[in-house]
Task: inverse folding
């Protein structure tokens, strides 16, 4: 009585009273509160994992790049893998304002270790001057730069299956290095862990003496770049002096330029991942909101009891907010742990398709911002859902209005409210459609509106399903349990809607995200098939999917051309070019090879005309994003910074990015050879005579190359499969998010269903008291669950098809990826059946337990 009087008198409750009331709620409704918290935790885990995954690639790579450059703030960099004369180092060292300078030669190579395991690595050749600069060689053991050996990072050694202790033996571990068309055997001189290699230990890199790498690469006297540390306050002056040294043929850039280039390269895929993550986070928090809605009836009844007892509105609001904060904070902490586990497992990866152009780390970087966003989102979702019962505090509303509603108290939803919610949903759909047409870049907003419209449509959809089921029950009187199920669902409208809405959210996200990823992969596969159609058999450096690493043709072209069944051998060229803030893929196609790779990729211009112009020379095609950045269109002139200086080209067409996120430029091989000052191929394409055996020709080519040749011989379909696999790996996070969303939805629905069935114990015990057998109760629960899932899941699947079209448009028009034509196929139906089947099977456990409830429970109540 004293406590009741205190509640009446105070506008706000004491902390002890708040704790007492929440402890009492946890004691009475433990299972319900745990299940609601489980839904919140799932949402937080999903958001936190995707945020970490998006930031970790750039974050870990930045650590690697900074570990290489050390305190250097400028660099002189070659525009080609052939590098430049190392004598420029002396000239740079004597520039006024230069404190220190160090040379570096970098090459991409493939290392093959025990059991034929291989890994693509960035090999750095340097000398002790970089140790003085405190860059790559800081704390590096001298044995790592011993003649005839190669030092491997811990990540590279692990990929090859080489333990750290192997370097301590007298014989050491031998590996094979395939570099620029040649193969060499080297001894592993050191396995470099974090204690000696820092962040570089998590990247797939290797180090060796500069002179040795120059010899193996056939680049005697050449280096890739010079890292420069300018004296304090002299950076601008040194930069101007370096521009004079570069002579328009080398790049002068900040030492950490690769960080900027990588952020740009990750931009389109990050945009796609961010879109997927944002939608997943929204849907996850809708899961949490729906989970909390299941607790609304009990909370409304508790509030009514407190109001009848005389507790002030402010005190009730304080109690509700306190309980929401407690539940939200605890559940969000659990979600953060789950998200961290997901980021270390499912999402722990690097975008392998960028490995040929960037040195990537594999560490997981957890920033403060993702942690705070996920934590705040979980708490906010819990608080918003907990505020729904506070509507009963409106002035003019009866203190115990909840007990006068039809059905179980707190579960009612008037038909007028259903129609109002649908009207709001229709308005959101119209707004989303207008944004979709007028502003493709607003895909996230459009999908948010579609998701909200989907949830708001569920009440009317459920009412429609119940009406249809009612008509079936009227016609087929033998379905005796169906009318009982309908009565039960109408008496627990809010709970039913929470479950149905969870299914709608699950299907919307799964169909939209999964379908868009499939369209994206099909688009990339379509481009790849046209790209490899340039030859029947390809000769490339191992792992060089973009064909950007050159090699010698001293004997390859002539010897292969005379093999039986070979019609011709074409030389292909290509490289990566740092253009503005992009590392662009330059593709140089020979005149004799078909330019089928333009099929379906042209955005502005005409394919046949563009093909003719590129072959004629002086014309290029480029990705639409590059054209927009430089404000050029078809027929305009664009100057490219090539190794021989700036060269003007006219734009024949704008295209997709060919699956390379920074963008691509296509030109003729003749133009490339002149502008890049080299005739060295980066790939050889072999065309066979009609009827010639592909396997016999490939085997003959391999014999002609000999055992010490470092090139890989691939049939066109094998090369396509290799490239598609790399693209799939780089975009696998999108699929993992879509899959994880389905799993999270299933878990959230099972939790929500378990909570709902647990709350039905009293009503079920009443049926037991009337003589209903447990097996009939289980059938009753199964019918109810099926009706709820059908209403929500069908609504979500239909909306998901629209969401897929929105995301497809965004990926193609904003990120530049080649996206195949919109196609849904059987996916919505398959996901619908999968989700419903799994949830129904899982529901049998709580259903079996609830069906055995004691009849005396109804008498006790």
Result:
């Amino acid at each position: 009585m004293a406590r009741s009087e205190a509640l009446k008198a105070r506008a706000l409750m004491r902390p002890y009273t708040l704790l007492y009331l929440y402890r009492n709620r946890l004691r009475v409704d433990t299972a319900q509160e745990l299940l609601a918290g489980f839904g919140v935790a799932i949402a937080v885990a999903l958001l936190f994992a995707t945020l970490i995954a998006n930031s970790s690639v750039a974050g870990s790579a930045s650590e690697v790049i900074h570990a290489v450059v050390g305190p250097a703030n400028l660099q002189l960099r070659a525009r080609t893998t052939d590098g430049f004369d190392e004598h420029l180092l002396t000239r740079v060292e004597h520039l006024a304002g230069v404190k220190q300078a160090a040379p570096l030669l970098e090459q991409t190579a493939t290392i093959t270790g025990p059991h034929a395991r291989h890994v693509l690595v960035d090999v750095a050749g340097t000398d002790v001057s970089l140790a003085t600069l405190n860059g790559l060689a800081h704390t590096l053991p001298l044995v790592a730069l011993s003649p005839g050996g190669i030092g491997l990072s811990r990540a590279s050694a692990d990929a090859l299956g080489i333990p750290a202790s192997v370097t301590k033996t007298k014989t050491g571990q031998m590996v094979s290095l395939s570099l620029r068309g040649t193969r060499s055997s080297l001894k592993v001189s050191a396995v470099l862990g974090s204690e000696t290699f820092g962040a570089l230990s998590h990247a797939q890199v290797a180090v060796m003496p500069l002179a040795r790498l120059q010899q193996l690469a056939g680049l005697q006297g050449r280096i890739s770049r010079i890292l420069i540390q300018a004296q304090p306050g002299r950076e601008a002056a040194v930069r101007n002096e370096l521009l004079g040294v570069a002579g328009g043929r080398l790049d002068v850039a900040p030492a950490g330029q690769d960080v900027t280039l990588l952020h740009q390269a990750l931009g389109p895929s990050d945009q796609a991942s961010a879109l997927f993550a944002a939608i997943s986070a929204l849907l996850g928090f809708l899961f949490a909101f729906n989970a909390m809605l299941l607790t609304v009836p009990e909370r409304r009844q508790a509030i009514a009891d407190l109001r009848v007892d005389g507790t002030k509105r402010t005190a009730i609001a304080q109690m509700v907010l306190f309980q929401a904060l407690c539940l939200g904070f605890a559940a969000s902490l659990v979600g953060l742990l789950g998200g961290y586990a997901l980021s270390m497992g499912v999402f722990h990866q690097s975008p392998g398709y960028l490995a040929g152009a960037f040195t990537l780390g594999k560490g997981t970087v957890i920033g403060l911002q993702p942690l705070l966003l996920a934590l705040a989102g979980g708490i906010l979702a819990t608080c918003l859902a907990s505020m729904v019962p506070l509507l009963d505090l409106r002035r003019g509303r009866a203190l115990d209005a909840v007990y006068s509603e039809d059905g179980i108290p707190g579960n009612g939803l008037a038909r007028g409210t259903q129609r109002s919610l649908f009207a709001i949903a229709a308005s959101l759909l119209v707004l989303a459609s207008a944004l979709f047409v007028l502003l493709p870049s607003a895909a996230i907003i459009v999908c948010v509106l579609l998701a909200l419209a989907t949830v708001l449509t569920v009440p009317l959809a459920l009412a429609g399903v119940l009406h249809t089921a009612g008509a079936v029950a009227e016609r087929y009187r033998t379905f005796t349990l169906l009318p009982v199920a309908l009565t039960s669902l109408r008496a627990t409208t809010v709970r039913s809607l929470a479950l149905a809405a969870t299914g709608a959210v699950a299907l919307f996200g799964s169909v939209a995200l999964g379908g868009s990823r499939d369209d994206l992969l099909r688009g990339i596969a379509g481009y790849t098939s046209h790209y490899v159609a340039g030859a029947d058999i390809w000769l490339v450096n191992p792992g060089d999917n973009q064909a950007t690493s050159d090699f010698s043709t001293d004997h390859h072209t002539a010897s292969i051309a005379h093999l039986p069944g070979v019609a011709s051998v074409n030389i292909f060229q290509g490289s990566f070019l740092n253009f503005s803030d992009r590392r662009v893929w330059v593709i140089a196609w020979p005149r004799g090879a078909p330019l089928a790779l333009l099929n379906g990729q042209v955005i502005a211009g005409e394919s046949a005309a563009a093909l003719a112009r590129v072959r004629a020379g002086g014309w290029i095609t480029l990705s639409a994003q590059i054209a927009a950045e430089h404000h050029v269109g078809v027929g305009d002139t664009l100057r490219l910074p090539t190794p021989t200086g700036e060269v003007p080209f006219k734009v024949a067409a704008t295209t997709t990015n060919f699956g390379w996120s920074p963008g691509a430029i296509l030109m003729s091989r003749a133009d490339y050879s002149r502008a890049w000052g080299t005739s060295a191929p980066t790939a050889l394409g072999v065309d066979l005579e009609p009827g010639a055996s592909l396997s016999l020709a490939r085997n003959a080519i391999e014999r002609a190359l000999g055992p010490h040749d470092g090139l890989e011989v691939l049939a066109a379909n094998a090369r396509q499969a290799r490239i598609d696999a790399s693209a799939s790996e780089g975009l696998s996070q999108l699929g993992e998010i879509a899959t994880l969303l389905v799993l999270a939805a299933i878990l959230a629905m099972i939790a929500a269903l378990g909570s709902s069935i647990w709350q039905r114990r009293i009503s079920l015990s009443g049926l037991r008291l009337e003589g209903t057998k447990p097996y009939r109760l289980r059938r009753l629960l199964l019918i109810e669950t099926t009706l709820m899932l059908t209403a929500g899941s069908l609504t979500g699947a239909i909306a998901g098809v629209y969401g897929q079209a929105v995301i497809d448009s965004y990926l193609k028009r904003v990120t530049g990826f080649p996206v195949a034509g919109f196609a849904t196929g059987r996916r919505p139906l398959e996901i619908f059946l999968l989700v419903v089947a799994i949830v129904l099977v899982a529901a049998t456990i709580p259903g079996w337990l609830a069906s055995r409830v004691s009849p005396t429970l109804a008498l006790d109540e």
